[in-house]
Amino acid sequence: MPKQIDHEAYRLELARKAAPLFSERGYSGLGMRQVAEALGLSKSALYHYFPTKKSLFLACTETVMTEMTAGGDTGPALQGPTPQDPGTALIDFARSLEPGFASEMSLLFDYLRGKTATEIADDPAMQLANDHLRRHVEGLVGGEAADSALCLLMGALLMRHFTGGTLDYETLLPALRKLG
């Protein structure tokens, strides 16, 4: 009797395993043949599940964003209870993002290279990532403050990176309190 395969579960598992490859090698530095080899598949088997590199990247984006916001839309994907204070919750979420932030930003800018603002806004992977992040931050700080808080979050992560981690997250608290 032939082995029964849950194709959607297998597809998601392939995307989960391929995501680190994009982070390590960049979007333009990674081909479908390299992904297939790294995953132990034939190129045709990989193309069965993902007809293009862009479709694979979108699936990888979905798995990464789902795992990143695994605490649901009401709390960060962290151990322990969600803090009551929205500012503290946002800072905790920023801390959870920081370890992979530099490689993710490198990948993001590589992926977006040469695209116009309209192409970026219309890109399914960008829409998916932005929607996940916005919903998650909205769950932390509320709907009216979500866009401002998301800007502070991304700015803080960039500045932490640019200053070698010397910027203290707590410098955000006065601005976060003004949002609420």
Explain what this protein looks like in three dimensions.
This protein is an all-alpha fold and 180 residues long. It has two domains: 1-59, Arc Repressor Mutant, subunit A, CATH 1.10.10; 69-180, no CATH class. Helix content is 69%, strand content 0%. The protein contains nine helices and no strands. Helix 7 (124-141) packs across helix 8. The model is unreliable at 72-83 (pLDDT under 50).
What's this entry about, in short?
The protein has helices at residues 7-25, 32-39, 43-49, 53-68, 86-112, 117-122, 124-141, 146-162, 173-179.
Tell me the helix content: 55-70%
Radius of gyration: 18 Å
Strand content: under 5%
Structural class: mainly alpha
Q: How many DSSP-defined strands?
A: 0
How many distinct domains? Answer: 2
Mean pLDDT: 88
**What is the global morphology?**
elongated
Largest sheet: none
Secondary-structure element string: HHHHHHHHH
So how many helices? 9
**Assembly state (oligomeric):** single chain
Low-confidence runs: 72-83
Give the termini separation: 60 Å
